[in-house]
Amino acid sequence: MREIEHHVAAAGWDAPVRVFALVRTQAALAAEPGLADQLTPETLAAAREHAWHLTSVEQEGLPPAPDLETLLAGLSWPATVDGVAVTVERVVLPPEAEEAMPADLPTGPDQDPDAAVQWLLAHPDRQDVRLAVGVLRDGPAWCAVRTRAHDADDQVGQGGDVVPGLVAALRATLE
Predict the structure, then answer these.
(1) Residue 4 pLDDT exceeds 90
(2) Distance CA 77, CA 60 (A)
């Protein structure tokens, strides 16, 4: 997940959702020998040494979807895919920011439905984050989180279940 996050970070911020299939490198090389020409010698050596060495394959031409939840609900993977990863950017706020939202924002059906979102996006305590979340078919999950305010490779937080809802949604695409 750290490699995927680093790869996506190289493209900068304000990026679309990106989805990756995770496959065992040895199996991918057996199915597609020409893949060896695209991998570094270090990657090939690691794949020979570790049966569970994974290669990420970015999925292009994803179907249009109004949101991440709809996109993920429409994905399924063949048995040859050992896991899946996604990167997505989000805005996070401390709980007190949402509690401080004025009650009189024009958010009714006859008014601007995005008023609350615009208020939150303009909040001075907002933090832009990039989430890179991956799960394997056999259970393990890993998350990497980078903030725009601390946009450095050595400032990426990591953990197994940092974004439990997204982990569960990704896991469902493998069922």
Answers:
(1) yes
(2) 14
